[in-house]
Design a protein that fits this description.
Elements lengths: L5 H13 L2 E5 L13 E5 L9 H18 L13 E6 L2 E7 L8 H9 L7 E6 L9 H8 L4 E6 L9 H8 L3 E4 L10 H10 L1 H9 L3 E9 L17 H12 L3 E5 H7 L14 E5 L19 E6 L4 H9 L3 E5 L4 H10 L4 E4 L3 H9 L5 E7 L27 E8 L2 E7 L29 E5 L17 E4 L5 E4 L2 H7 L8 H11 L4 H14 L8 H19 L1 H8 L4 E5 L18 H23 L1
Parallel strand pairs: 5-6, 6-7, 8-13, 8-14, 9-10, 9-13, 10-11, 11-12, 17-20
Antiparallel strand pairs: 1-2, 3-4, 3-5, 14-16, 15-16, 18-19
Helix pairs in contact: 2-6, 3-4, 13-14, 13-15, 14-15, 16-17, 16-18
Length: about 625
């Protein structure tokens, strides 16, 4: 696949998308040859398109706008599915909204609130089908209650447990729903479709390949060097380019480097934007030949994970652990296993800022999806000066990997070349009509133990998470009810209750006013770590009761959540956090899973009370 044929490739994708056939993507990440995944073509219902060319162009522009709005939280919060909503009447935008972070007000509700009465009879444009938090129907209900008459959707939700559910719910409320490629067909929508795919590329790659979306970034000279023969590399690219790198970091859950980078550059790897999301730093080192002191071992502002092979340098592992650095051992350290581990941690997007010795095997294993190359107008020469990618075992130019959808941009004096090594997967399947869908028996054998895991709010049981967008009302020390945006806000703030110190009271208020549960958690943990004197003396013994009280309030306030919890009867509930070994289950079941245990306790109480009520009746 050659770069000069990128337009032909895109045309082919669009043709497949908008034809009277629907296709479904199969397969996973390929090896170095990157064989294209197979496409299965299926016959679908005739496509409906009744709008004029002018109206089509207008709708395409509004869908592109929805995708642009969806991306506005990038860098401020950890990566999450990006949702944008634009409400328009006769081509005029009357309301917009976007999901700021998991657990915050949905894009659709924000848009209808801004539109006010103008939302009635208007059309809503969504870059992707709603579905941030399973069992939370705010996105759909806000559109229905506002009187939206039609919804145009760029993509069906790529996650199986959410795909098609919001569309079905809207149609059941007599709202007209048109989905790109199903109900609308026109080449005019080509750019709109591309925008919708691009803004949620991390989610699409994660769903297709079961690894996070991975970007390889490097800066090199015109002669292809990333450092001089001595290893000196500060600076190849311009200050403007380095600013763009900080933006890329802010869009990532984690940054990966190798041991050589730590030894040679001693990087800090922060986003340096003065607040907002701070990615995790991941170091890959088989032998753990790393310095005892390094900037990455300072975890005050950013978390660090060191991955290594089992048994490597136990002495250094103990030293790192005392500094707060997490060490994760693998039987054989390799790029794919590390990315699968990052997938298990819930990461959507990972940025690789490594040298050629690590980038080559990462590319070979198929875990690198996109490349950002900053090319500086400099020449340094040197036969032994390092290049950005090590040996891939290629001996002929016909084996070269060609980027897809290549972009060129001047950034200060440098040129940024970016492109995909693998095409963006579109996982929207053919959804058969309801009369053709066979209903599976959901019951399980009483001798089988079913485990239900939850972690991120977009997981099938994500509503069980502390981050889910369900406000609760809890009494304060004086008996007055206070409203909390999420359980996480309430839990983190109560670390500082009852402490006779103005700073503790300030901490309480700061956490309560945090814009998202993610920020509340980050602030609460940071203050606890930096100012342990502000934490209440009985916290270790009180935190379980505090969490349980919040859980009881949450599930009694929202009947649909209580019904959802009761529907899991007979199953073991596991909070799947890989690093919180108190509330979560850990990576390999080593965690205490207290949140899962409290939920099961609450479920038992609810079911027993329901049983007593039934007997009395």
């Amino acid at each position: 696949m050659h770069c000069e044929n990128c337009s032909v490739l895109l045309s082919l994708i669009v043709l497949l998308w908008f034809s009277a056939w629907e296709w479904q993507l199969h397969g996973g990440a390929a090896a170095v040859t990157f064989a294209a995944p197979a496409l299965t073509l299926r016959r679908c219902r005739p496509i409906r398109c009744t709008v004029t060319d002018a109206a089509t162009a207008e709708e395409a522009a509004l869908l592109r706008r929805a995708a642009e709005v969806a991306d506005l939280s990038a860098g401020h919060t950890s990566p999450h599915p990006n949702f944008g909503c634009v409400i328009a009447r006769g081509g005029d935008v009357v309301g917009e909204g976007f999901l700021y972070a998991q657990g915050t007000k949905c894009a659709e509700l924000q848009a209808v609130e801004k539109a006010g009465g103008l939302a009635r009879g208007a059309t809503a444009y969504l870059n992707m089908e709603p579905g941030d938090c399973y069992s939370d129907h705010t996105a759909v209900s806000s559109l229905v209650q506002a009187g939206i008459s039609r919804v145009v959707i760029g993509l069906r939700h790529p996650l199986q447990h959410l795909r098609g559910k919001a569309i079905q719910s809207l149609r059941s409320e007599s709202v007209q729903v048109d989905v790109l490629g199903e109900d609308l067909q026109s080449k005019t929508f080509e750019d709109a479709l591309k925008s919708c795919l691009m803004v949620n590329a991390p989610l699409l790659y994660r769903a297709a390949f079961r690894v996070p979306f991975s970007v390889l970034k490097y800066a090199m000279t015109l002669d292809g060097k990333i450092a001089t023969m001595s290893g000196h590399a500060s600076w190849i690219s311009s200050k403007v380019s380095r600013g763009r790198v900080f933006e890329l970091r802010g869009r990532s859950d984690a940054i990966v480097v190798g041991g050589n980078t730590v030894r040679r550059d001693d990087p800090q790897l922060t986003a340096r934007h003065g607040g907002g999301h701070v990615p995790v730093r991941i170091v890959m080192s088989r032998t753990l030949n790393l310095p005892d002191e390094a900037k990455l071992w300072n975890v005050t502002e950013a978390y660090t994970i060191v991955t290594t092979q089992r048994g490597a340098r136990r002495d250094l592992q103990k030293k790192l652990a005392k500094k707060g650095v997490e060490v994760v051992e693998f039987d054989i350290l390799n790029s794919r296993d590390v990315m699968e581990y990052c997938y298990d941690r819930g990461y959507l997007s990972v940025l690789w800022e490594c040298g050629g010795a690590l980038s080559a095997p990462a590319i070979s294993s198929g875990v690198i999806h996109k490349v950002y190359a900053f090319v500086a107008p400099k020449i340094i020469g040197g036969v032994n000066a390092p290049s950005p990618v090590g040996d891939l075992g290629m001996v002929q130019m016909s084996q070269a990997l060609n980027l897809i959808d290549v972009s060129y941009e001047q950034v200060g004096p440098d040129i940024l070349v970016s492109g995909f090594l693998q095409p963006i997967p579109d996982l929207s399947p053919v959804i058969p009509s309801s009369d053709k869908i066979s209903v599976l028996d959901p019951t399980v054998s009483p001798f089988d133990t079913k485990i239900i895991s939850f972690y991120k709010t977009w997981d099938p049981y994500g509503a069980f998470s502390n981050y889910s967008p369900h406000p609760i009302q809890m009494p304060d020390e004086n008996g007055n009810n206070l409203t909390w945006s999420t359980m996480e806000h309430y839990y983190q703030a109560h670390k500082f209750v009852g402490v006779d110190n103005p700073l503790a009271k300030d901490a309480f208020e700061q956490i309560k006013m945090a814009k998202s549960p993610e920020e509340a958690s980050r602030l609460g943990r940071k203050l606890q770590r930096q100012h342990p004197e502000l934490v209440r003396a009985d916290w270790d013994s009180a935190k379980i009761d505090i969490m349980y009280g919040a859980l009881k309030c949450k599930f009694s306030t929202y009947p649909h959540l209580e019904a959802m919890l009761c529907s899991t009867a007979g199953s073991v509930l596991v909070e799947a956090s890989p690093h919180d070994l108190f509330w979560g289950g850990g990576r390999e079941g080593e965690g205490l899973n207290y949140l899962g245990r409290l939920l099961m306790q609450l479920r038992t109480e609810i079911l027993e009370e329901s049983s007593k009520t039934s007997v009395v009746s």
